[in-house]
Amino acid sequence: MEKVTAYKPEDVEAGGRLEHLERAANRSHDRQALAEGRYDEIISYHWSIWGMHAAKLTAFRSTEHPDPYGATDAELKKEAIAMIKAHPLDHLVMTLPFIWRGAPFLFPLLLYTLYYAWRRHEASLAAYVLPSLGLIMFHALLSHFIPRYAISNVPIGAICFVLLLHRWVASRNRTTRSGETTQSTIRSA
Q1: Which of 24, 36, 111, 136 maximizes the CB count within 10 A of its CB?
Q2: Pairwise CA distance, residues 39 & 124, whole Å
Q3: What is d(CA 55, CA 41) in angstroms, rounded to the nearest whole number?
Q4: First CA to last CA distance, the chain
Q5: pTM of the prediction?
Q6: Closest by CA position to 113, among listed 70, 168, 185
């Protein structure tokens, strides 16, 4: 991967040029800053979200809000929706990396199965695949789409893989048999 991206593993470590992308639980600096309420000193994106949540939760608790957790979640949700509305194209562009993160093999397989169904005019196969593709797009558009979110689509992907493999083997066998028939007809003549 280093050849493709020009980034080295040490780039995500403390002091590296990509340290803000590290989400490992062992980020002691970020964890300590979070525990001590120094939210502006948190470096990684992952831990900064926890810092934002903790800061808002502390603010709602200080006002003795009846539901500080619910209010914090509602406030963060409102901010997230405002960011999406402010930059919808950026949000759409990020769906591709999220698809790659959450379903790197499943999404192309389901997409190819949909294409196959369209080419063969098999509406039932397309109808079988479309809900899974919709669910993957839903997660890619509205979440950080970690791989476990795609687990419910794996059985459908497995069935599509077996179906496509079966049809590919069957078409190869038909081609081979038609070639053998032609050869045997030529020999007998």
Answers
A1: 136
A2: 53
A3: 13
A4: 59
A5: 0.67
A6: 168
